[in-house]
Amino acid sequence: MAPADGLDPVRRRFAEVTAERLALIEAYFDGERDAAALREIGRIAHMTAGVAATLGHAALGRVAGQVAVELHLANAGRDWRAVEPRMRQMMLAMRAVPVWCEAT
Q1: How far is CA 102 from the centre of its chain?
Q2: Burial class for 4, CB neighbours closer than 10 Å (0-12, 13-18, 19+)
Q3: Integer Cα distance of 27 and 51 in angstroms
Q4: Three-class DSSP labels, 75-99
Q5: What's the distance, Cα to Cα, between the start and end of the chain in Å?
Q6: pLDDT of 49-101, one tens digit each?
Q7: What are the backbone dihedrals phi and psi of residue 103, each rounded to the nearest 5 degrees, phi first?
Q8: Fewest CB within 10 angstroms: 64, 84, 101, 103, which?
Q9: Alpha-carbon distances, residue 18 vs 8, 34, 35, 89, 92 (angstroms)
Q10: Closest Cα partner for 48 from 64, 59, 37?
Q11: Gap between the Cα atoms of 44 and 18, Å rounded
Q12: What pLDDT is stored for residue 101 in this prediction?
C-alpha cells in the first residue's frame, strides 16, 4: 500500500500512463522488432525508470533502467535478443502497476 503522502493523483496517472506504455511495448514486442521499435521501447523504458521508484515501484524502476541501457547497446550493434528476457521482466512489472494503485 502506498504511503499517504499526497501523491495518490500522481500515482493514479502513472498507472494510466504505464498501462498505455505497456500496450505500446506489447504491440512493438509482438510485431517486427526493427531498430525504430527498439528505440521506442528504450525511450519508454527510460521514461518509466525515471519516475517508477519515486512512486513506490523500485523493482520496475530498476528493470526499466536496465532495459533502457541494454536496448541502447542493442541499437549500437548488440543483438536485441539478449535483452528479451529483461524486456519480459519489465512488462510483467508494468502489468502490476495498475493493480497496486487500485489497491491503495
Answers
A1: 18
A2: exposed
A3: 23
A4: HCCCCHHHCHHHHHHHHHHHHHHHH
A5: 5
A6: 989 988 989 999 999 999 999 988 876 666 778 888 999 999 999 999 876 55
A7: -80, -10
A8: 103
A9: 15, 22, 22, 14, 12
A10: 64
A11: 9
A12: 54
